[in-house]
Amino acid sequence: MRYISTRDNTIQYSASQAITQGLARDGGLLTPCYIPKLPGKAMEDLKDMAYQQRAVYIMKMFLEEFSVKELTEFANTAYGPDKFDSPAVAPVRTVDGNTHCLELWHGPTCAFKDMALQMLPHLLTASLAKTEESREVCVLVATSGDTGKGALEGFKNVARTRILVFYPKDGVSEVQELQMVTQEGTNVGVCAVVGNFDDAQTGVKKLFADKQVCQMLERKGYFFSSANSINWGRVLPQLVYYISAYCDLIRDEKITPGQTVNVCVPTGNFGNILAAYYAREMGLPIDQLICASNRNSVLTDFIRGGIYDRNRTFYNTMSPSMDILISSNLERLLLALTQDPAEVRSYMEQLNATGRYELKERTREKLQKRFKGYCCDDSETQRTIRAMFDKHGYLIDTHTAVAFSALEQYRRETGDDTPAIVASTASPFKFCASVLEALGEPNAASGLDALDQLTAKTGLPAPTPLAALRDKKVRFTQVVEKEHMADAVMSLLE
Length: 494
Ligand SMILES: *Cc1c(COP(=O)(O)O)cnc(C)c1O
Fold this sequence. Notes:
Blueprint: E1 3-5, E2 8-13, H1 15-21, E3 30-32, H2 42-47, H3 51-60, H4 68-78, E4 92-96, E5 99-103, H5 113-117, H6 120-130, E6 136-142, H7 146-155, E7 161-168, H8 174-181, E8 188-193, H9 197-209, H10 211-219, E9 222-226, H11 232-251, E10 261-266, H12 271-281, E11 286-293, H13 298-305, E12 307-309, H14 330-338, H15 341-354, E13 356-358, H16 361-370, E14 371-375, H17 378-392, H18 398-414, E15 420-424, H19 432-438, H20 449-458, H21 464-467, E16 479-480, H22 485-493
Parallel strand pairs: 5-15, 6-7, 6-9, 7-8, 8-16, 10-11, 10-15, 11-14
Antiparallel strand pairs: 1-2, 1-3, 4-5, 12-13
């Protein structure tokens, strides 16, 4: 399997090169040159396998250079019982007859980023060996919350890697900050940046391009890499859980083999829903992909009108991991729809120059045939949390609630009640204040006391990794101005 740039198919890499490199030389995203088809008997084979084995089976189709033995070791470590609090890893909970919730937050940081970030470090270190890279990796992350902690847990104590996370001092929740500053591991560093997420993100991008910093790194035997969802090693592990969910539904006789389903995903950077699209390309019988957005509805408008326009107000919402105006992974979908890197390059050039592009009619029609876009604001998000809890006794977080609202709108508008799989992306205990308010408790306690309050309200226990934060020591207290992030890199690499 060769990997090509979304903007130029003459640039070709092996899987291990694509994973080591992250981004193509021309700024495009490295993407498989075709999507392999699941063999006819795949579902039969996969149905009775554990999640870890399913992951090996599916990832192997994209990673010829990796042996089954290798991948089995990775999957067992990444998705083992010491990491995930459910033996199913990504269990499916049926909410009503034709609505099934795929819970992706049973990992160490209680958000769906774990599904990929527990696997990526294994793929990356093995890729270093395969490409005969002698330097060690220094992974830099700017985070608005979930990615930073997910990457820290994934890379903690992984040989030949260092991981440094920058977060905006006043831009993450108390629980999220505590999760990061108490991080354990010998190869990790965490630093707060004065400013907002954009300041941290821009600072990290500058570090990647800073010749002096890169030379210093080189002298110490490191090179920079990224754990952002532009890396193919982050998208691939996400295909697994859609196929796995479908197998579970067959196994549990909720659907019949071959039956069509719809998939609904709360979307930010477009990585998660893209994985569902690829699973469909592999042959999974998915009909509609429902793309759910919060008040930052750039994707809803794009799907409905065929015009991507980031020139708009940015809103901070109660589903912060979806507060995003540029969805990087959309570029991979554009290649899949057009099969034409030149067309993709032209859209990306327009996006860079003007913040906007308009799809050709043929491409727009293809997009609209497969994708439906819906969005909702914070009050609808909270209404959905409340309704789900009252009606089904099922507690969902703010991001997942956006998806349930989108599905409800889709069904009302189209009358299509095809069985749906809804991706649930975070534990409600990560967003206690908003969830409590939705349930009629506007005065949430501060810090970890809100966990107890949500338990008292719902009778549900807080996930162990969050409850355990109480006993963790704060290890990182460094705060820097955004101009001084290079100094933080130096001191953290000492
Ligand atoms: C990252 C994240 C999302 C958005 O996923 P994308 O792959 O970026 O579209 C949604 N919900 C939660 C809780 C997240 O952490």
